Amino acid sequence: MKINKILFSISISALFFSAVSCERYLDTEPISDQTVDINNPLATAKSAEEAMITIYSDFGNEYWQLDYFLNGDAQTDISYAGGDNVQNFQQDEYRILATNTNVNRDWGYLSNFMDHCNKILNYVDGAQDLSTARKNQMKAEASIFRGMYLFHMVQLWGDIPIVTKSFITINSENFDEAYTQLYPKRQTVNDVYAQIISDLEGAIANAPASSEKYKANKGAAYALLAKVYATKPNPDWAKVKEYSDLVISQGYSLLPVYDHLFDSNHEGNTESIFEANGNASNIWAWCTSMFVGTDWKKFNTPSNDLVKTYNDTGDTQRLNTTVKFTPVTWSDNYWSGNNFPFMNKMRLTDGNQNFYILRLTDIILLKAEANIRLGNFSEAQTLINQVRNRVALPPITITSEDDGINKVLAERKLELAFEGHRWFDLKRTGKAISILSQQKNGSGAILPYAANINQNRLLWPIPQAQMDKNQNLTQNPGY
């Protein structure tokens, strides 16, 4: 059979979940005689809408239901890994190996999520019975998701591949391009951020209104751009302020009671920018059972340091919302069984738990951070104190740039604990090593594993399983 007659369905996820070589693919017979439009896989509105549902259904995936929160908090002074998974203990204690299965699965999940976005971006224009306006909105939503997932990956691994094509067929005409996308090289961090910014800025015009909180909307694009410009090499703090102001201009406002953010009676509230809508259906939210309860130790056990920080600050409102102490019949290395803490921001166990991807307070504090970097201490104080006022804490003052960064980080720690931000906040501000190397246990002694943190450990290793499949990948330093 000639190459140009070999047509078969192939997803970019083959790069991550199959070790079959390109030569093997070219020797493969068609798996079906079913006739498909190989140039137009999203040929109908129905198929296009189903592809969009897939993108949102990814919120029910293990990455979002468990790993995202572990990655953001268990690697920090917010929490201990909890549970009994040795792969999580490697993350918690800054001794990850390239063979760590959590690291490998997250690479695979994030890459597969982006392939779902690429399908829309590459093919939705071929849906003949779909309006142009709907196509443009779909592409905007997919672009926001792809930009967000690239942002997650570049923060975890540094240089990463940029894959923008989802191949439905491979033939002699597209083989060279397919190879570079199925077996991609890592691109520089600067190139990745350029792609992220292009995706997000390009999506704004056709994104859903900011009021549509369960969709990748305009406010989400603005918020992600603020975070991206703060995190990329050589941050652009003027851009951070610009996009933070665009977020704030969308009509969001702080809820008057902090606990209402998490009591499940105020879903899609005025503070929410972008929210995963657990619905016990295509987004079955099983995350709560990973973090709360008394039947086993669960993950993301609140740290002694976090509880001490709340108590030392007199922040009883956020402590009571964030951490729940419960008597249990067992203990671990950090807490006795008589009074064991669980994270408390997820409380529904029926599959309907919502969680925030982005919310206003994150952006208010990010704008404060930008003002600190720009020397506008008075404006930064006002923003931080707006957040503190809600929970009846006294105002702070800022005396220098370093003092301001320390205070905004302290506020983010209290406000955003267990929402997946701390690891990335510490890295962005250059404070990860100095803070995490001083983590203490309940007796005030520095934790033994705190000494493991170093510059190389701020990035994860490229998974060995991915390198075994793709000879074009290279390893990060120190692994």
From TrEMBL:
Q: Does the keyword Membrane apply?
A: yes
Q: Where in the cell is it found?
A: Cell outer membrane
Q: Where is the RagB/SusD domain?
A: 288-479
What's in the keyword line of the UniProt record? Cell outer membrane, Membrane, Signal
Q: Where is the SusD-like N-terminal domain?
A: 25-229
Top-level division of the source organism's lineage: Bacteria
Q: Which family does it belong to?
A: Belongs to the SusD family.
**UniProt name for this protein:** RagB/SusD family nutrient uptake outer membrane protein
Q: Which organism is it from?
A: Chryseobacterium terrae
